[in-house]
Amino acid sequence: MAHFARLNIDNIVTGVEVVSNDVATTEQLGIDFLKTVHKTNNEFVKTSYNTANGIHKLGGTPFRKNYAGIGYTYDETRDAFIPRKPFASWILNETTCQWKAPISEPDDGFHHAWNEATSSWDQTDPII
Predict the structure, then answer these.
(1) Side-chain-facing half-sphere of 20: CA atoms under 13 Å
(2) What's the rounded Cα separation, in Å, for the pair 112 and 121?
(3) CB neighbours (10 Å) of residue 2?
(4) From the centroid of its chain, how far is CA 15?
(5) Would you give the DSSP letter of residue 95?
(6) Closest CA to 82 of 47, 120, 39, 35
(7) 12 pairs with which residues across the strands?
(8) What is the pLDDT along the chain (128 residues), one digit of tens a residue?
(9) Main-chain phi, psi angles of 36, to 5 degrees
(10) CA distance 56 to 53
(11) How far apart are CA 81 and CA 99, in angstroms?
């Protein structure tokens, strides 16, 4: 099955559609099919269910860095799906197209939550 992200005018993913590989033999044929079925001018972009963090989980070639999710942005320049930025201070990792805290989470056996006000990790509870 082929998966396609439906984009709004701001390139934000509003849904993900599945099309048979028999229909979507090329990306453009899949897009044309979806536009006809949904009677819409929305843009559609193919996404890979097996791609996350710039890695194809079955060993294949990664496709558009991440599988599209609702609320993700399709960045045409990077040709990548990027999740919502969780905090203003976080930085985009260009390799994975995932957001990363400006400092690493402590590796001390506890769970942590990012505190944007202090730009630090707050300990929440021990890992059980």
Answers:
(1) 2
(2) 6
(3) 21
(4) 12
(5) T
(6) 47
(7) 73
(8) 999 999 999 999 999 999 999 999 999 999 999 999 999 888 999 999 999 999 999 999 999 999 999 999 999 999 999 999 999 999 999 999 999 999 999 999 899 999 999 999 999 987 66
(9) -70, -50
(10) 8
(11) 12
